Amino acid sequence: MLQIIRERLPDYPHRNGLIWNTSPGALLTIPTFSDTYRRFPFLLDKLGHTPGLNYTAVIFVQIGTQLTPNTALYKLVKSITKSQYIDKILILWATDRSVPPKKRWPSTDRPSISQRFYPHEQIETDAVLSLDEDAILNTDELDFAYQVWRDFPDRIVGYPARAHFWDDSKNAWGYTSKWTNYYSIVLTGAAFYHRYYNYLYTNWLSYLLLKTVQQSSNCEDILMNLLVSHVTRKPPIKVTQRKGYKDRESGRYVLKIVGSCWLFSFLVTYINELLNSLFEKGLVTHF
């Protein structure tokens, strides 16, 4: 009610009846993001528009390696540059190791894992491809995922999937990376999403939620999934890829998972913190 009254004040940004009466509603359609409705992913279909062409790849580097032809980061960048849809590549260097000698690097004033979802001014495309530095995808896989995303621009579309579940024996949420026919989370280590969600993540989410992610230095992809599912009331979309990849260090073929086994109990702890906080505040009703 206060927001409705506020928008009737002179010189205050206001939204018309279409926005107020169309899901997800005016409270999630932030006018300071854009004064053009076609810039909001959930309004594109209703307005008969399609998302803008091309995408921006954002690679989040936490380990840091030399940019030599044998490193995963080098090969990832090489695959991206061959994509017919790429607009630009941003490499966010979030490690204590020295930055490779490149002319232009986006500024990261706040050393936080949430920087990967910051609305950097260099991102000018609707589509954002979020990548971990060790993601191993070829150009065809990147282009295929982008084409799928264009049909579902309001959702997260990507490759690595996980599932959360309610564990009755522990009376808590659980988390698994097993390869099954069920998933509820698409990790942002290799996923497309609309750049508007960067704006919401940074400017709309509770400070306490962002602080939880900051303290854990993890779970930012889970929080992004929670945010998008809350806005759209829809699940993410998984696209298929090669299940195995070659371990560059040992030469063995392994399954790519999120870190080592100990990490899963750690993740479960923070999933419960995030979900409990969101449910208490009424910010999540669908996940």
What does this structure look like?
It comes from Anopheles maculatus. InterPro entries: Exostosin, GT64_dom, Nucleotide-diphossugar_trans. Residues 56-252 form the Glycosyl transferase domain. GO terms for molecular function: glycosyltransferase activity. The protein has nine helices and eleven strands. By secondary structure, the protein is of the alpha/beta class. The chain has a single domain (45-98, 109-239, 258-281), classed as Spore Coat Polysaccharide Biosynthesis Protein SpsA, Chain A. The strands form three sheets. It has a six-stranded mixed beta sheet with strand order 2-1-3-8-4-9, sandwiched between helices. Strand 10 (244-246) and strand 11 (253-255) form a beta hairpin. The relative contact order is 0.13. Residues 245-266 have low confidence and may be disordered.
Helix and strand topology:
Layout lengths: L1 H5 L10 H4 L23 H4 L7 E7 L10 H10 L4 E8 L33 E6 L6 H13 L5 E2 L2 E7 L4 E5 L8 E2 L3 E5 L1 H8 L3 H10 L3 H13 L4 E2 L5 E3 L6 E3 L6 H20 L6
Parallel strand pairs: 1-2, 1-3, 4-9
Antiparallel strand pairs: 3-8, 4-8, 5-6, 5-7, 10-11
